[in-house]
Amino acid sequence: MREKENRMINPLRGMKDLTFEESQRFTHIIDTATKIAQRYGYNYIETPILEETALFKRSVGESSDIVGKEMYQFEDKGGNDVCMRPEGTAGVVRAFISTKLDRQPIKQKFYYYGPMFRYERPQKGRLREFHQFGCESFGEASVYEDFTVITMISQIFTELGIGFDLKINSLGCKACMPLYRENLVGFLTGIKEELCSDCNRRIETNPIRILDCKNGTCQSHLVSSPKLINNLCGECDSDFKKLTALLDNACISYTVDTNLVRGLDYYGKTAFEFVSNEIGAQSAIAGGGRYDRLVEFLDGKPTPAVGFAIGIERIMELVQMPEIQREGIYMGAMTDEAIEVLFPLAAAKRKETKVTVEYNSKGFKSHMKGADKANARYAVLIGEDELKESTIWLKDLESKEEKTVLLSEFQDTN
Ligand code: HAM
20-176+232-318 belongs to which homologous superfamily? Predict the structure, then answer.
């Protein structure tokens, strides 16, 4: 045997275990979001965590920070260039095309949840392995679908008891975006000297992302930059106005943020972010938008699409948890022989309810503490007297009512 290495092994930096209290919050979020997504006609989809690196380069974009700096990318044992997914949309679009769903005339809607990986500098609200709940709707070009997706997210947050601010923008389409980009590059070249090195690099590679630069000096020079919202083509302009009218009618408050460009390259037209002012600097709790050209770009049949993803860890501490109800039965033996009776009884009752069994015989007080810890609704104890008389002692821990019941009778009741 090898010599024992003398150090404790912890999770990697920026990665976390999810244990008891947090895992309950996690499950509650997923259950709530799933229930609402299903009401909107979404079906569950599961795609691999590991994909060809080319998928993310072609969808999220080579000039994005995610692809340029943050990918968990490596060569597998077969020499393939692979990557742990940094987000969910690219994989779902790939699956939509790989399984030929793009060839079917019906509209398809998918929801998913699971881990995503980005090699960022960890800080509060920013992990290297984090979880998203996401939805992708394929085949619907109408701005009503953008509105419906935004409504769905606000319904999820409302049901979870989370307050939010909604920011929206339009990123234009293949008709108006190139003209705007040219216009913007002209403006940026004029203020080149004043911009940070990242922005200078982006003038060539991804000028739109400059609008989103966090550097204060850059932002002060960008105040007078041309705004895409004022340069939209007729269709994008009327879609955006329709979206704001629908939100106004539904009393969903929002702000138009002309600098909201999103960190992924596939968006066009509607882009949005939900933010919370209660969680510090990493305030985006959900993001998404329309990506009508991505399916075609990944060699599928041209299909309009819109979607979003919620960052689970970011909303974990904001969620208002429902009161946990007492549930199931705690069973305890007060003599060793009684365990022999309890054990098959527990197996039978587990067909109907949650059962916690204490295998060691213990005193009354200790068992009652155990029942409380297990948050059980009922405590069932068997001691010497019960053994002799083929009975059990039963206490309803909510009503505090207690009684002795024939074992056979208890076995037959639900
Ligand atoms: P995203 O804005 O990159 O969009 O991520 C969505 C959400 O994931 C963010 O709003 C944030 O809450 C959470 N998130 C992102 N990075 C981290 C991190 N390092 N640590 C913790 N949470 C994080 C997307 O991923 C798109 N795929 C959304 C989408 C779906 N667009 C269309 N369909």
Answer: Bira Bifunctional Protein; Domain 2 (3.30.930.10)
Ligand 1 neighbour 287 (Cβ under 6 A): yes
* 88 in contact with ligand 1, CB cutoff 6 A: yes
**pLDDT-derived band of residue 2, with 50, 70 and 90 as boundaries?**
low
CATH number of 329-412: 3.40.50.800
Q: Return the residue whose CA atom lies nearest to atom 13 of ligand 1.
A: 311
Beta pairing class for 81-84 and 72-75? antiparallel
Best of 55, 130, 140, 149 to mutate for ligand 1, by most ligand atoms within 8 A of CB? 130
The beta-strand segments (E) located in 31-96 are: 43-44, 50-52, 72-75, 81-84
Residue 313, ligand 1, Cβ within 6 A: yes
Q: 123, 125, 150: which is closest to 137 by C-alpha?
A: 150
Q: What is the pLDDT of residues 174-216, one digit of tens each?
A: 999 999 999 999 999 999 999 999 899 899 888 999 998 888 9
Model's pTM, two decimal places?
Answer: 0.93
